[in-house]
Specification:
Elements: E1 4-15, E2 18-24, E3 36-37, E4 40-42, H1 49-61, E5 65-77, E6 81-92, E7 102-108, H2 120-129
């Protein structure tokens, strides 16, 4: 059986020399449970990447963002699906965000990101775009 393929976008939100890193909720899937990621989500049919990012961050964090240039894209195969993960450099609004779909969030410099346990696709992305 062919694995499901997901097109996912993520926001690399930059503030000064720091980037927003978010921790996924606990899940029965060990390969993603409580691991770190850049916020974002699946691109729905009929939606472009920019629309998906704006919608996902509004839904998951009640936060308005400005989506800038595309930073890079990686492919990864998880046990039950494959993913194309595309990152965009983003800027957040002045308002504070909320964590509806994440356990935690940290603003970290690139060198401090290494200490976090990232999802496999996001780790690949970090190696690609930084």
């Amino acid at each position: 059986m062919e694995k499901k393929h997901l097109n996912v976008v993520c926001a690399v939100v930059q503030e000064g020399d720091k980037y927003l890193c978010t921790q996924r909720l606990r899940s029965h899937k060990k390969y993603e449970s409580e691991l770190w990621e850049f916020p974002g989500g699946k691109v729905k049919e009929g939606e472009n990447d920019y629309e998906a990012l704006i919608r996902e961050l509004k839904e998951e964090m009640d936060w308005d963002i400005f989506v800038g240039r595309r930073l890079g894209c990686v492919e990864h195969e998880y046990p039950d699906y494959t993913i194309t993960l595309t990152a965009y450099l983003c800027r957040g609004s002045e308002a504070d965000f909320k964590l509806f779909s994440h356990l935690d969030a940290k603003w970290l410099t690139r060198d401090k990101m290494e200490a976090l346990r990232w999802t496999a696709a996001d780790r690949k992305l970090i190696e690609t775009i930084f």
